[in-house]
Amino acid sequence: MKKSMKWPALVMVLSGMLVMSTACNSESSSGSGGGSSDKETVKVGVLASLTGALESYGKQTQRGFELGLEYATDGTMEVAGKKIEVVFEDTETKPEVAVQKATKLLEEDEVDFLVGSSSSGDTLAVLPLAEEYEKIMVVEPAVADSITGSEFNPYIFRTARNSSQDAVAGAAAIAKDGVKIATLAPDYSFGRDGVAAFKGAAEKLGAEIVHEEYADPAATDFTSNIQKVIEAKPDYLFVIWAGANSPWNQIADMKLQDKGIKISTGAPDIAALSAMEPLVGMEGFSVYYHELPDNEINDWLVEEHKKKYDGEVPDLFTPGGMSAAISIVEAIKKTEGDLDPDTLIETMEGMSFETPKGKMTFREEDHQALQTLYAIRLEKKEGVPYPVPVLIRELSPEETAPPIMN
């Protein structure tokens, strides 16, 4: 699995070996190299948007990852006799910063695993580093299909769902013969991959995509974008969006539903749900809402999150952070502490592990985690100040399995 070294790198390694061989009675190495099974610590570097437009997503991932380590290690923060150390770095949702921070984690902190990031753009920029440094990277929560598709490399494993999994769930809610659908999405890989996947899934069910509209990811005014959708006269507008600058208020202000255009989307995080009052009754899908999964791990997550964060419930990407942490701990348990990347890859391919969303499995062919999604309806609930995703039915990992695209 490892690549052959280029000459300059080989010369440096040989020089280092000569120096080590001539040193008299030097101390043995602490085992900071990638394959040492007697290393006393496991270091994990987590990349996340801890500031900027996706700050809430990054903090959800951070909280979930910390709770996931606590759960998976029974509070010891140790696995296979090794102490787990975590370093968080803020990508600022800028690919060039993500590369800088990832390089720092790999070279200065000498991490054994990378995790992240909140943005697909950040993540795509970092993927080549995982291969170059031969370190496992668990992708969470970035969803662009290309991460486990055209840009895949064998060191990448993804606990986050991908755009195609979202698309299958979203299409199942509204697409059928003769239905005309327009889409609205941010103009970067997350949005474009999402629309491409949704279009494929919807057309298979007989629907027609009559317009694709892409908006500036940092936009605050969506008037011109929404007007183009209105002019296309669809039956549905399917919206793919991430971030605090959501288009829901303007969609309501421009009265699309009064014009006969129904809205459908994935139920977002709680902050964005607060702006979706006009969409009560909408049918769509959800990646996660704390009341949807029915299992012991999710019960633990909800209870412990409330204890730790002043009664707050876990949000959209909290269970993803937890799942990423659980997957790393489970892999190290299975290798009995061996951090050799080839051993980890062999172990993690096809590996199943329990999460707040039920069982996930890293598909051997592309390392995408197959997982449960949820068909939902937005409803008002007494005592809750935002529309709540209510379960219509679970969409099984087999049902939402995306195509293999690598």
Question: Overview of this structure, please?
Answer:
- The chain is an alpha/beta fold and 406 residues long.
- It folds into 2 domains: 38-161 and 295-370, Response regulator (Rossmann fold, 3-Layer(aba) Sandwich), CATH 3.40.50.2300; 164-286 and 373-395, Response regulator (Rossmann fold), CATH 3.40.50.
- The chain is 36% helix and 21% strand.
- It contains 12 helices and 16 strands.
- The protein has helices at 7-22, 55-72, 95-107, 120-132, 163-174, 189-204, 223-232, 248-253, 270-273, 296-308, 318-334, 341-348, and strands at residues 41-48, 78-79, 82-90, 113-115, 136-139, 156-158, 180-186, 208-215, 236-239, 262-267, 283-286, 352-355, 358-362, 369-370, 373-379, 388-395.
- The strands form 3 sheets. It has a 7-stranded mixed β-sheet, sandwiched between helices. The protein has a 6-stranded mixed β-sheet with strand order 2-3-1-4-5-6, with helices on both faces.
- Helix 2 runs parallel beside helix 11.
- The two termini are 17 Å apart.
By CATH, the topology of the largest domain is Rossmann fold
What CATH first level of the largest domain would be assigned? Alpha Beta
Count of DSSP E strands?
A: 16
Q: Give the helices and strands as they follow along the chain.
A: HEHEEHEHEEHEHEHEHEHEHHHEEEEE
The coarse overall form would be globular
Relevant terms:
406 residues, alpha/beta, Rossmann fold, seven-stranded mixed beta sheet, six-stranded mixed beta sheet, disordered N terminus, Leu-bd
